[in-house]
Amino acid sequence: xxxxxxxxxECNFCxxxxxxxxxxxxxxxxxxxxxxxxxxxxxxxxxxIPDDVDSLVLIExxxxxTKSGAALRIAKKLDxxxxxxxxxxxxxxxxxxxxxDFVARNRYKWFGKKEEACMLPTPSERKRFI
Length: 130
Hints:
This is Thiol-disulfide oxidoreductase DCC family protein. The protein is α+β, with helices and mostly antiparallel strands. It contains 5 helices and 4 strands. It has helices at 12-23, 38-46, 67-76, 93-111, 123-126; strands at 3-7, 30-34, 57-60, 63-66. It has a 4-stranded mixed sheet, sandwiched between helices. The protein is globular. The model has no long low-confidence stretch (mean pLDDT 90).
């Protein structure tokens, strides 16, 4: 099973993050689904993801990762020097997650919320969305 990234489909920052991942994932390690979609809701239920999680989730090797753990595991597989960000895994999770939570709490205020439909993916990108 490919690694699945669940994201908030209403969040501009989350949408930009998905586009960022796609551009730096030439081996197509990741597939994507919004948390609001039927697939996202089913995966959330299957992996017992708490209802209050509304940003980024990574499902990898039968386990769901949230917050900074998800972001760092995603970065580990990206092209370029982004994989070096995984070194932050050495920082205690409560500290990493407090920074993550600060950004997540303010993402709508700073980056806005989708008023319209998301960008239409290219045919090659479309196959990566479930």
